[in-house]
Amino acid sequence: MKKTSMLAGFMLLGVLAGSVQAETADANIAADIVQVKRSVLELNKDLYELEEDLLSPATTRAAFYFSLTYGEFFEPLSIEIMGSGFEAVRHIYTERQVAALRMGAVQPLANINLGPGKHNLRAVIRGVDQLGQNRELVVEQQVEKTDKPLLLEFVVSDLAEQQSARAQLKFW
Amino acid sequence: MGHFIRFLFLSLVALTVQAAELKSTETLAPGQRVDDFSMPSAIGGWGQRLSEQRGKPVMLVWLDRCDQCEEELVRYQLLAESYALDHLVAWFIWAPRKNDRPPKMRLPVLLNDRKWSQSWGFNPRPAIMLINNDGVLDHLMLGDLSAHYDETEKTLAQWMAKQQLQASAENEK
């Protein structure tokens, strides 16, 4: 009888020890999983950066932005940016987008690849003036792409004294 | 030999065109989400973007050849305006051909031109699309607009009632 109860005790202890070991193993596996997940995220980030560098390296990276200051004398309806070495960029504005621009939003228009050197840019911004008449603002300018990213912002601003608006190119 | 090659080439071209047409008709069917687009106005004014209307029912009327075809569209305009209080958004989509002039309507008439990369075209035309609050195409009616007016009126009435019910059920949640 005594032997039987001792055997049962040993078995119980064995089961308990096994359960503790299993819990420790589970905790280790969970920690490993977290570590693996972290590594995957880091690898993903590295791959994304590599892809960005390969697809759009700084030497060819260029981006266009658009902004509107006040917009009392001109409301844009569309913009077209043409030039050598890239496909024309076109955008159609909605009322909601122009409302956002009026509140100070700067619109990222396009990211393009542009070879180093000088490029002639021509942007046509079609819209209406304060009298509802169709109007076009044109920006023609030569820009130089160096080995650094070229960030260009087309800014439409009011000329209060002339009750008109003008478009300019701003280099970031 | 030359004739044979020419025949073969023309057959291939014809097959490709047919395949492309089939693809375009297969690209959109009821139950599918409608891709976003932006189109400029054909008659002056703001451009429109489909995704900005999410949460509202949208009716798109894709016009076939139309040279100032206001008369044909007036009934559709009145029909759409009768649901304005239920927030129905309705646009006519016009593709210019030769020297055609766009119809002058109170509702927006959008210019469908391949030049604008933010837009896409739809064939066959004319067609009417009813797009629900979630941006999913519920009904697609193809064929002559005048001949299909009664069907459109009936379908629109039932569909708008369903949209209203769904909207009120969501509001109650």
Describe this entry's structure for a reader:
The complex is a heterodimer of chains A (172) and B (173). Chain A is built from two helices and eight strands, in the order αβββαβββββ. Chain A is elongated. The model of chain A has no long low-confidence stretch (mean pLDDT 87). In chain A, the strands form two sheets. Chain A has a four-stranded mixed sheet with strand order 4-1-7-8. In chain A, strands 3-2-5-6 form a four-stranded antiparallel sheet, with no helix packed on it. The relative contact order of chain A is 0.16. Chain A has 172 residues and is of the alpha+beta class. Chain A has helices spanning 2-55, 95-102, and strands spanning 61-69, 74-83, 89-92, 107-113, 117-129, 134-145, 150-159, 164-171. Chain B has three helices and seven strands; from the N terminus they run αβββαββββα. Chain B is globular and about 65 Å long. Chain B is an alpha/beta fold. In chain B, the strands form two sheets. Chain B has a five-stranded mixed sheet with strand order 5-4-3-6-7, with helices on one face. In chain B, strands 1-2 form a two-stranded antiparallel sheet. Classes of the chains: A alpha+beta (172), B alpha/beta (173). Chain A binds chain B through residues 77-78, 90-98, 128, 134, and chain B through 38-41, 44-49, 52, 115-119.
Number of beta strands of chain B: 7
Number of helices of chain A: 2
Q: What are the secondary-structure elements of chain B, in order, as H or E?
A: HEEEHEEEEH
Most strands sheet of chain B: 5 strands, mixed
Question: In terms of structural class, how would the helical and strand content of chain A be classed?
Answer: alpha+beta
**Cα radius of gyration of chain B in angstroms:** 19 Å
Q: What is the multimeric organization of the chains shown?
A: heterodimer
Q: Name the beta content range of chain B.
A: 15-25%
User: What is the CA-atom radius of gyration of chain A, in angstroms?
Assistant: 32 Å
Helical residue percent band of chain B: 25-40%
Sheet/helix structural class of chain B: alpha/beta
Name the poorly predicted regions of chain A. Answer: none
What is the helical fraction of chain A, as a range of percent? 25-40%
Tally the beta strands of chain A. Answer: 8
